[in-house]
Design a protein that fits this description.
The protein has 68 residues and is mainly alpha-helical. The protein has helices at residues 2-23, 29-49. It has 2 helices and no strands.
C-alpha cells in the first residue's frame, strides 16, 4: 500500500512538471507582432463601441500570461 501511494505521488508530481513545461511557449517576434496587432484591433473596437473617450494602450506581454 505504501508503494502504491508513493508511486501515485511520484506520478502526480511528474505530470504537474510536464504540464508546466508543455505550456511554456516561445514566440517569435513575428508572432508577437501579429498578436499585438490583433489586440490593438480588438481594443480599438471595444473602446469605440462603448464610446470611451479616454484612450487606453493595450499591450501584449507573454510573461504576464497566466494559465487558469
Amino acid at each position: 500500500m505504501k508503494k502504491i501511494k508513493g508511486l501515485l505521488l511520484y506520478t502526480l508530481i511528474i505530470m504537474c512538471l510536464l504540464q508546466n513545461a508543455a505550456m511554456a511557449a516561445i514566440h517569435t517576434p513575428e508572432e508577437i507582432n501579429s498578436m499585438q496587432k490583433h489586440i490593438n484591433s480588438v481594443g480599438f473596437k471595444i473602446l469605440n463601441s462603448n464610446k470611451i473617450e479616454k484612450r487606453i494602450v493595450f499591450v501584449y506581454n507573454s510573461e504576464d500570461k497566466k494559465i487558469f
